[in-house]
Design a protein that fits this description.
Strand order of the largest sheet: 1-2-3
Largest sheet: 3 strands, antiparallel
Structural class: mainly alpha
Number of helices: 9
Radius of gyration: 16 Å
Shape: globular
């Protein structure tokens, strides 16, 4: 059951994002396993990063506000453009992001297992065999495992086409943040 849920999560993102590359699937799974803990080492820097990023964004209510990065929706990306369009409070978002990032999450074994699910999906006859190189997926998996599953950035094609702008939160914290501001809590 869990393997099917991980595969379904990957397929949803592959269908949603045309420019999704192997590194973007890695980032998706990494966020689903580890949350955003790697992103907040300095609160002042996190605030400045959020403020600077939001200055450049055009609000967009058409984008989903919450997007799952976990097979059971326990971890989400809160997209900044719709958050700004709904007049979400940045200070409250930063507080929620810091609280969420401080929570211990995941383990390398889970990441290895989820990556193996993705790898199997790229084998001949499976749903992603024609989309991603099985050899490259295997190589990236070995490399990242040796690096203890370190965080990564989105691929340049994904960045250029989709222009991701979000913060990763656990679902409970995200819903508390949004409900307190009377904003949409639907997860896609």
């Amino acid at each position: 059951m869990a393997d099917e849920a991980v595969a379904a999560l990957i397929l949803r993102h592959v269908q949603r994002y045309v420019a999704l590359d192997i590194l973007d699937v890695y980032k998706l799974l990494h966020q689903g396993v580890f949350g955003a803990g790697h992103a907040v080492s300095n609160q002042r820097a996190a605030r400045e990063w959020l403020e600077k990023e939001c200055e450049k964004l055009k609000p967009n209510a058409a984008e989903p506000l919450l997007e799952s990065v976990h097979p059971y929706d326990e971890i989400v990306r809160l997209n900044l453009r719709p958050y700004l369009a709904q007049r979400g409070n940045l200070r409250k978002l930063l507080d929620a992001f810091i609280r969420s990032a401080a929570q211990p999450r995941g383990d390398p074994e889970t990441m290895a297992h989820w990556w193996e699910i993705f790898h199997r999906m790229t084998l001949a006859g499976n749903p992603l065999a024609n989309r991603f190189s099985e050899r490259t997926v295997a190589l990236i998996g070995r490399t990242r495992a040796a690096e203890k599953w370190s965080a990564t950035q989105h691929s340049p094609p994904y960045d250029q086409m989709h222009k991701p702008a979000y913060r990763v939160l656990d679902l409970i914290t995200a819903r508390e943040l949004l409900e307190a501001q009377k904003l949409d809590t639907k997860v896609v």
